[in-house]
Design a protein that fits this description.
Blueprint (H helix, E strand, L loop, with lengths): L31 H13 L3 E2 H8 L3 H12 L6 E2 L16 E4 L1 H9 L13 H17 L5 E4 L1 H5 L6 H4 L7 E7 L2 E7 L6 E7 L2 E7 L3 E2 L16 H13 L2 H6 L6 E5 L2 H14 L5 E8 L15 H4 L3 E3 L10
Parallel strand pairs: 9-10, 10-11
Antiparallel strand pairs: 1-3, 2-3, 4-7, 5-6, 7-8, 11-12
Helix pairs in contact: 1-2, 8-10
Length: about 325
């Protein structure tokens, strides 16, 4: 009798099919549970680790892990495991990160989704960080009495100026600043998409609007003498001009404006806050909110998904800490 072939555990990185009891590659039939719990979150956030997807969908984490494994393999391929995640030294032990594939997007388009998939980002780590931060706001908005206004909501709002609504890139805020006696016309756009938070205080709605988040992976300088080069110095100046000129009202129709700035560690955050203190002549700014979040490339264990970006306190320069739910 010939020996039974040894079972080989499938690699978490390849696309070879799972074999069903009939000896054939296992084909997935897409269910409404897949649409609501997996596909929809991945249309809002390009990259999400398994535990973030689970935070949105609930149920059994083991079931979700196995379901995503099936959906990622031949002949299904509805989701992808971005190969860039293997750059982390602990990639074989971290939660897998997923994105919706072209085939997955096609399924959503068949179900009436109108938005299109954007171009692949230049930096996987930066885009992942932005997705996790925006997802955290989304998760935090599940707090009773709190509502999240998405960019889709804002685009449909009558408060958004028609001129902005029809721009090729309506998330870009046009702004003109004076540098060394010269007027420079440019624009500023945050990571993610503009969003708003509504909470009720004494039976009255209170609103907080943001252009997105500034996700800093420590890959660009905090300060630089070259204004044309991307830096936190440049971004601070542009956002301060947006505030001073009331452009957030003119461009978005926002009644308020806050810029969440998230960087990788406390030391870098302090350097950013010191720079803002200098730029504002010691006055500080109530608009900029500061917090830390570990980078994908860090050896630090990634924090579990939570609504901390919405529910936790943010540091400010010259003003008390800020909280979207209590300030």
């Amino acid at each position: 009798m010939p020996p039974t072939p040894a079972y080989r555990r499938k690699s978490r990185w390849d696309h070879t099919p799972l074999i069903g009891r009939d000896g054939r590659p296992a084909a997935a039939s897409i269910t409404q549970r897949d649409i609501d719990g997996i596909f929809k979150p991945l249309t809002r956030y390009r990259y999400l680790p398994v535990d973030y997807i689970h935070a949105f969908t609930g149920g059994s984490l083991d079931y979700l892990v196995n379901r995503l494994n099936l959906l990622a393999r031949e002949p299904n391929r509805y989701v992808n495991r971005p190969p860039q995640q293997r750059a982390n030294a602990g990639a074989n032990h971290r939660r897998l990160i997923y994105e919706l594939s072209e085939k997955g997007w096609a399924v959503m388009h068949e179900r009436g989704l109108t938005c299109q998939r954007g171009r692949a980002p230049a930096s996987f780590a930066h885009e992942l960080m932005a997705c996790e931060l925006m997802a955290s706001f989304d998760l935090g908005a599940r707090t009773p009495g709190v509502r999240l206004f998405t960019w889709t909501d804002i685009l449909q709002s009558p408060s958004l100026p028609e001129e902005t609504r029809h721009l090729p890139k309506p998330t870009n805020i046009p702004v003109t600043v004076e540098i060394d006696g010269k007027l420079i016309a440019t624009h500023i756009a945050a990571d993610g998409e503009p969003f708003g938070i509504e909470r009720v205080v004494d039976n009255q709605p209170v609103y907080f609007f943001c252009p997105g988040v500034e996700a800093d992976c420590a890959t660009e300088p905090v300060d630089t003498a070259d204004f044309q080069r991307s830096s936190l110095y440049r971004k601070f100046l542009l956002y301060l001009a947006v505030e001073a000129q009331g452009l957030y009202r003119k461009h978005f129709g926002f009644p308020s404006f806050y810029v969440p700035v998230v960087t990788t560690n406390p030391v870098r955050m302090v350097s950013m806050m010191t720079l803002l203190h200098r730029i504002t002549g010691g006055a500080g700014s109530r608009m900029f909110l500061f917090k830390t979040f570990p980078a994908f490339t860090s050896s630090q264990k990634p924090p579990p998904p939570s609504g901390q970006m919405l529910t936790g306190d943010w540091e400010r320069v010259g003003y008390p800490p800020f909280n979207f739910l209590t300030s």
